User: Fold this.
Amino acid sequence: MDREYKRRNFITTFTKGDIFSKLSYIFCGLANIRYGQVVKGLLFLLLEVCYFVFLFTTGINLIHNLTTLGEHEQGMAYNEALGIYEMQAGDNSMIILLTGVVAIVVTICFVAIWLFSISSGENARYNHDHGHHINNFFEDVKSLTNENIHFLLLAIPVVGLLIFTFTPLIYMILMAFTNYDNEHQPPGHLFDWVALDNFKTLLLSSDKLSQTFWPVLGWTFIWGIFATFSCYFGGMILAMIINSKGIEFKKFWRTIFVVTMGIPAFISLKVVGTMLGEKGIFNVLIQKWGWTASAVPFLTQANYARVSVILVNFWIGVPVTMLMVSGILMNIPAELYESARIDGANPFVIFRKITFPYMLFVTTPYLIANLIGNFNNFSAIYFLTGGGPMTLDYYKGAGKTDLLVTWLYKLTADTNDYNLAATIGILIFIISATFTLITFQRSGSMKNEEGFQ
Amino acid sequence: MMNKTVIGLKLEYFLRALVAVILSFVSLLIPFTSKEAGSKNMISTALSLLSADGAAKISFFLYLAVILTVASLVLGVISYFKTGVKIVKAWMFVQIFATFFWTTLLFAVKIILEEGGIENDFLLKSAGIGFWTGLVTAYCSLVFIMKLAEVNVGYIVLTILGVMWMFPILWILLTALRAEQGYYVGYFFPKHLTLKNFYDLFHNSAVPFGKWWVNTMIVAICGCILNTLIVLGTAFVLSRTRFSGRKPFMNILMIIGMFPGFMSMVALYNILKGLGLNQSIGALIIVGAAGAAMGYHITKGYFDTIPKAIDEAAIIDGASRLQIFTRITIPLSKSIIVYQVLGTFLGAWSDYIFPRLLFGDRQSSYTVAVGLFWMTDFRRIDSYYTQFAAGAVVIALPIVILFIWLQRFYVEGLSGSVKG
Assistant:
């Protein structure tokens, strides 16, 4: 008896089902039609027909082309009928790859619809066999505002993500396994699959690329750690000063610092960048004040530039932390401070034993997210130094303050080495994923999302 | 006298304050100028400046530093014999000004000494020991007197940091109002003020700033509406309902989010080209809305804190999920909605990389971020720098006002993102 009532899964629906259930694996929606959901069943069938029409007219071709990425280069070909050489259009690997990816994504969508139609047909059968009510089409539509609201509210985001995020991402990930660099620009030159060659040259070879990658990675880590922790502690100290007893006009002080947050980052970075130039106002002033005899190469000498970007990031980042910490500081139980003070603890001990551990406990996930964010902090570097100062030690285009992301951007925008850019993108993903996994293991709020309900 | 207690004063700091003030006075008597200039102390420097012909006007910084240091010592000695809250407060104010003028010397001493004919090619690092001890003891005195008067020492830090934080902002404001054109000017305060830069910005045929501004406003407003709706919907479904595929969906979003965003920008550009949408601001709005769901975390975290019992009660009363969303959840989420709207609005004004790629050379579709950047290209920066500054002010001013006004909601959103 029990077994009879058990819901069937994807396989048992087929093995135990009647002829309609079995046939609905080939003709989507047949089971729905059999149990009275005619409109729904026909819709499934229509979608299936559409997909197969697409597949047999163009889809198969597109997917097949993916394996070769084009064979005929654009160039002069001999036309025997006319007896002359003429321009032949040739294949375009880039378009072949892109359309191939689109065909694959469409196929994935169809598989999802197929699976959904089978489970929907099985539901209809189950309800029919057990004498439950079977929704008609109108009731199905109505359920979109109630128990099936996720279909309604997620439809637009999912379609948007599929077209504008997922598809391009798959395309770029595949690109990491091709040789689409500046010497293989279609349609003049086709590119082809090269398996893991890009990873090998970037990580392991003694090539200039690998000699660029490791220092850039190193600086990315140094930058991320300094940028994150300087802003974290700076913001915490600032928040503690503003919130401490005896400071009047708290709102005024907070506003002074918040102004920098309100200005779009690219403006403040660009402005500070021009101020730090060789003839910028900072250099003019410090010479006028007698602080140095000659201009300081704030952005044009590697080590100065690195310190400069960290300091400017401090200027931009401290107010954000300050605001966030202000909120948390107010949540620390006042009794803790009271009893510490009675026990004779001085402010420094109170900070070290109470405030800081509490803050660290609450903000660890934020801190790690911030660290990942700083590894990928494109704007702070790009708008300030543009990755410069340039150096001959690095692969063309990369500079001494370049992070992996800014280098990635330069590879796509300036030198057209898309394969390298994609490879770096995947490596950045691996780094971010590692740090996120650490966060997951440490943070209670991510594991237990029901905790507050 | 150390055994006395006075309400409103912490007398244990009195001795330290007095010693610091005395040391501060002593530094007036030890070498102030460099060895080449004869290692004069500060008082004799001040005297020779007074008799010099062409002494700079800002020499009074130096006179005041000397006078106020002496005055502070006098007040310190008086308050030793006649301790009271009022006299200590007066002492503190004198010391505040003394410290202020000592600090200005850090910037002005070169000009004062060179124009007063005392030194040539002065560099701060060659200044005599008296200068440095004077500066340090001025701050020490101020700290101890403030502690004595039970005033929070944090004011000193806040003032110094506040000036540092305001400095670039003041610069951009002054540049926007500067009549002298050009990037390379050798002074901070403009010689002539004007509003012409703002006028030129909107009446320059080569720089259609007005058009850019309208474009950005359209993108920002459409983005605010679409993105906020999408984020709210996604966050609601993921937070308040349970359905199969929910966890995998969240994991996929997280994985996608870990790839750097503009890795796929080139492909995205090609897709938009295929759809015939490239170079239009419509594409910018659509792409922004399409990716909005990725930022659901903070809103979901906020929705998670709304008690589930409210939903359950509503379901018993016969409300549908959509009604719960529109009638209960959204009205309870004012601060998170403001946070979202503010974030999207701000993003539209500062987004640069993707619009730059999307619009290419079609100037009429530029947003202000792309346009302003175009103006700061190294070939153009000299002729457009003041107009760029004016443009920056035009953009930043409304956003800053909005930001200060809605700060509270922003803080709630931010601290919502880090709860335990």
